[in-house]
């Protein structure tokens, strides 16, 4: 598979799906759901210019420290962590880049994930401010908060329906703006959920991502997952 990918006989999307499968990740287990990277950092421009390297996320860094400002706090947390019982090893992040709650968070508008989310929240929807309501806002939250380290799921590259509230669920309204949470707010450069998926998939297969995707793979599936390389890359999870 690696050789096929290097020879460009399979797409970046196909390669990531294969890697997830080999790593034991599966759509049948929310705790081991396939994981895909955030690949863009520009969610505010009117047009998306895939020839400009500045629109892409730095794939060599874990999502928690893509924003340089967070790196110092993350490093200090690791260095200062001491478990009095000596049971827990030092870590950079207390949450994870992929977990069941995160999958339900993204897929809340489609069944069976809606029902699973409601069960998780003791029989009701979580408060509106914590819902997945906007792609630009979700990215901004990642940049501002080193404790939020969610990567993406494959649906961001092929499934426009998860961005629409086609079932008309009452997801509440945001506290400050009083905005009703309905369809997911898209980046300015996307004119519809289908347009978002089309451009996002195009970005995934772009020259820039093809040249840098292996750096992210090292963090998630490769040698930077644990040990000294993980410590150096600020990539140690609880």
TrEMBL record:
GO molecular function, one term: protein kinase binding
Source taxon at top rank: Eukaryota
Matching SUPFAM superfamilies: BEACH domain
BEACH domain location: 1-238
Keyword vocabulary terms for this entry: Repeat, WD repeat
Single Gene Ontology BP annotation: intracellular protein localization
Keyword NAD found: no
One family name in Pfam for this protein: Beach
Origin species: Nyctibius bracteatus (Rufous potoo)
Name of this protein: NBEL1 protein
One CC-aspect GO term: cytosol
